[in-house]
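Hello Y.,

Per our agreement to keep a running log of every chain we model this quarter, I'm adding this entry. I've kept the format consistent with earlier entries: sequence first, then predicted structure.
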Amino acid sequence: MIHYIADYLINISECHAAAEIDSGYLRLMLPRNASEKSKLWDDIMKDVEQIIMPDITHCQHPHFRTYFPLRSII
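Predicted structure for the entry above:
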């Protein structure tokens, strides 16, 4: 997993900085019921690579610009 994270950070500039998707797109891809059997780790990572990662907002991307306040006053 550490190699996956390192590769992700090295190659992050090749991704789009912000997600370009419609809200709720992932819900349409989910099965109606949870599986009763476990999946292999390789299958899980394949789903992450093909379904999740292409449409995620990459906050560490060099072109990602936003403001996150360090603290707030209540």
